[in-house]
Write a structure and sequence with these properties.
alpha+beta, 8-stranded mixed β-sheet, 5-stranded antiparallel β-sheet, 17% helix
Length: 687
């Protein structure tokens, strides 16, 4: 297909970083409100749409994916007073509907239906906090996928929406105390800067029910450090307000306030090296999950009157496996571990005794088993690469599980296998990787392969189900997911080995994964795609610039692609602990400049077929990253493979994306993939 890319004008913009001049010819694309930027977006989308329209099997993929996606999807129920709440999508609804019912045997009734709030399904709703008497619930509303949220309040029994309306909320729940709740927000941004301006002074406020937001009481702030994030929650007994103060996405300080006695917030853990979370309070003790002295985390009991470390009592000691989380419910602790990136759960008494494993259906991922002390029934969800999300009911008294809701799709999971292998990275480090494919796969190097990764921010990638992935698997493809350094699958040391000056380890791990797949004839470079989103978009951008010969297709999604300026937009400064700061530190600049995808594209080189994806309402990783990278890649690339950018309208970083947009984007992705590995597919029947 012949492609005529839009002309992207350049400027003579040059910045000095520690006396090093760096050109930024596409700086003008950072202004998403400018008429010329909007015209550029329209022109690029037109080229991309025209290319995709010519792929003969694109519509067949879309029809098959809609068929696969069209099944009821449930969340685990959660209890508030006499009611159970849950989210349900009947199949192809744009947004899940929130239901409630009295008791487990009650008749479900619609509580909130976000699909009634917009024609295109771009408004999403989440419940974020119930009042102590369970009379009221706070909910957040987000539009167009933006991180900005608005908090409202409903009276549960009659579903009445109250007049309370809180704006400019980000990264917040609602922690109820007496007749109001604590929440986090920013000051109102300047007009026109809502989606790209630098967010500062994230602070915690207390809102009293029935009052205007202007009357809210400031509870916690840090005027001396405007870039700090502040989050909070209240212990189950409503005695203590716990506050976390973080300079970014890594370590943080922990404070607490006795709400009965009043007074100031007290420092429990100083910042910002470690991560310590207050899980529970009982009888004057905080139970805390911490990485202090335990890179795989442990649970300790801390006497509030004697909080010094020498007085801590270990409840759950550190083990060789990552203690991913600890929940409470029904009078027990539930410890969630990751063993080789898959979930194991144990129930324990509050003193750590009587450790009993919760038997899961297999190797995969599970979450839940959380509730109040008086609850007798809890729920958890389990999934794997070929096991759709399934809800189980857990009886606290007997310690037994039973099937509560099973997802039913139009596919046969017995036709596929999932396994875990290991390989050596460039420096000899052993890295684990999940592989999924049809049983009896012939290893002849001709199989389509989709290699997906993330590798950062202590995020763990464990087995998860995706209906979209079935498009690949049904057509003889291989899905590969390596557990790269920078992630959290193997503890804090694994994370630190892939951040800051060790970030190149992540790219080396990903490249080594690709080489393993080729060497073992799961695929070949001509059939191999790499993909990742956000920090994973950076991963793809870095690897395709470092080893363009190794991959046939690249999908950098909502990626952090300009590593010299990422910290200047919205919440980007929060990633400085992970990446470093190009402006304030010469060593950081040299490191970032060495792998920044935008700055490592070379004129005259041949790069993989690339479809960059972003969205106009992405205020997490602003679309300017993708805009500038696309413009430079189209200029630098001299091969025949297409270089396209797909810019979604009225969508954001990914959360809350309506089903219609998901189906369209995933169908476009698979059509582009199969087209550019020269493996046309055809669905002859609709199952």
């Amino acid at each position: 297909m012949t492609i005529q890319y839009p002309i992207t004008p350049t400027s003579d913009q040059v910045d000095l970083y520690h006396d090093v001049p760096v050109a930024d010819p596409y700086r003008w694309l950072e202004d998403d409100n400018a008429a010329n930027t909007k015209a550029w977006v329209q022109a690029q989308n037109a080229v991309t749409a025209a290319y995709l329209k010519q792929i003969p099997f694109r519509q067949q993929i879309a029809e098959r994916y809609a068929d696969l996606f069209n099944y009821p999807k449930f969340s685990s129920p959660f209890k508030a007073g006499d009611y159970y709440f849950f989210y349900k999508n009947d199949g192809l609804q744009n947004q899940p509907v929130i239901y409630f019912q009295k008791g487990l045997d009650g008749k479900p009734d619609v509580f909130i239906d976000p699909n009634q709030l917009s024609k295109d399904g771009t408004i999403s709703i989440s419940l974020v906090g119930f009042s102590k008497d369970n009379r009221y619930v706070a909910f957040t509303q987000s539009k167009g996928g933006s991180d900005w949220q608005q908090i409202g309040v409903m009276e549960i029994a009659n579903k009445k929406i109250l007049a309370d309306e809180l704006n400019w909320v980000k990264f917040s729940g609602a922690s109820w105390y007496k007749d109001g709740f604590f929440y986090s927000r920013y000051p109102a941004p300047k007009q026109g800067e809502e989606l790209k301006g630098n967010n500062q002074y994230h602070s915690i406020y207390y809102h009293q029910l029935g009052t205007k937001q202007e009357k809210d009481t400031l509870a916690f702030e840090d005027r001396a450090q405007p870039s700090m994030y502040h989050f909070g929650n209240i212990t189950e007994d409503k005695r203590y307000h716990i506050v976390y103060a973080a300079p970014g996405t890594d370590g943080y300080a922990t404070y607490y306030k006795d709400l009965e006695k009043g007074g100031d917030y007290q420092l429990l853990f100083k910042g910002y090296k470690n991560k310590s979370d207050v899980i529970f309070h009982k009888n004057g003790q905080f139970f805390v999950k911490t990485d202090i002295g335990a890179s795989n985390y442990r649970l300790v009991a801390i006497d509030i009157q004697q909080p010094a470390e020498e007085n801590w009592v270990t409840i759950i000691p550190e083990s060789t496996n990552l203690l991913q989380s600890v929940n409470t419910g029904g009078g027990y602790f539930f410890a969630h571990y990751l063993k080789k990136a898959s979930t194991q759960i144990y129930r324990l008494h509050y003193d750590g005794s009587h450790k009993t494993e919760i038997i899961l259906p297999g190797v995969g991922s599970a979450g839940g088993l959380s509730g109040k002390e008086e609850d007798t029934t809890l729920f958890y969800a389990f999934t794997s690469f070929v096991y759709p999300n399934t809800i189980f009911k857990y009886d606290v008294q007997s310690g037994t599980s039973s099937l509560f809701h099973e997802s039913k799709l139009h596919f046969n999971p017995k036709e596929y296998e999932e396994k875990q292998v290991s390989y050596k990275s460039k420096d000899g480090t052993e890295v684990s990787m999940f592989l999924v494919h049809k049983k009896g796969l012939i290893l002849d190097g001709q199989n389509p392969c989709y290699l997906y990764g993330y590798g950062g921010f202590n995020v763990s990638l464990s087995p998860f189900f995706s209906a979209s992935r079935l498009i690949l698997l049904e057509n003889g493809g291989v899905f590969a997911l390596p557990n790269l350094r920078g992630g959290g699958e193997y503890g804090e040391e694994w994370h630190q080995d892939g951040m800051l000056f060790k970030k190149q380890n992540v790219f080396d791990d990903f490249i080594a994964a690709a080489e393993y797949l080729v060497e073992n004839q799961y695929t070949s470079s001509a059939k191999l795609a790499i993909a990742g989103g956000s920090n994973g978009g950076l991963l793809v951008g870095a690897c395709m610039t470092q080893r363009p010969d190794l991959f046939a297709v690249a999908f950098p999604a909502v990626g952090v692609l300009d590593m010299l300026r990422y910290h200047k937009f919205t919440v980007g400064k929060g990633w400085i602990p992970e990446y470093g700061n190009s402006e304030t530190n010469l060593a950081h600049f040299n490191n970032l400049f060495s792998y920044s995808p935008l700055h490592n594209l070379k004129n005259g080189h041949s790069y993989p077929a690339t479809m960059i994806t972003t969205a106009d309402h992405d205020d997490r990783v602003v679309p300017a990253h993708s805009f500038k990278f696309a413009a430079q890649l189209q200029k630098s690339h001299k091969g025949k493979a297409p270089v396209l950018i797909r810019i979604d309208i009225d969508a954001g970083h990914g959360a809350g994306k309506p089903t219609a947009k998901i189906i369209e984007e995933e169908s476009d992705k698979w059509a582009f993939f199969f087209k550019n590995i020269n493996s046309p597919i055809k669905y002859t029947t609709k199952l």
